[in-house]
Amino acid sequence: MKSKAEITRLLKSWQQGDEMARNELTERVYAELHRMAMRKMAQEQQNHTLQATALVNEAFLRLFNADVDYKDRAHFFCLAGRMLRRILVDHARSAGRSKRGMGAEHITLHESQVLGQNTNPELLDLDQALISLSQKDSRKAEVVELQFFAGLNAEEIADVLSVSTKTVERDGKFAKAWLHKTLAENRMAV
Description:
The N and C termini lie far apart (49 Å). The chain is an all-alpha fold. The protein is 70% helix and 0% strand. Helix 1 (2-15) crosses helix 2 (19-42) and helix 3 (52-65) crosses helix 4.
């Protein structure tokens, strides 16, 4: 618990202009961001052109250069998950992949994260489905984002969102079913 409170304290100090706090914060959160990126990249195809270190470096730069008033550690890591998602989606788009087919990269999702074990939705399709889910229920979309893109487990997500682990598990089950249905409908519409 001390580490969580310490990161919040460092975020506040840094935002008030304390460069020493920024340096210490960098040391503490970089390792955690790298762990998140490693988890995420482990789910990617072997020939993915973006590496975990490049992913975390880009996320780190964006997070530290953003004009955001980070409320606390939870807020910071919630935005980190969102940033990892944006970078991966931007990477997929810039690689010239069409929304369906034509060499589009497939992302394998583990059963415990979003969809079934045999499902390989395209990242851009998943992104669009998450946007749609967030319009219906933003917390459920955040749960998926934190699981899939930030690599957090149910307890970590509960801490970030200030809800119970059971709520995270319920939201995850609902989101999994909703995304599975939405992605299947989208594939059938093609």
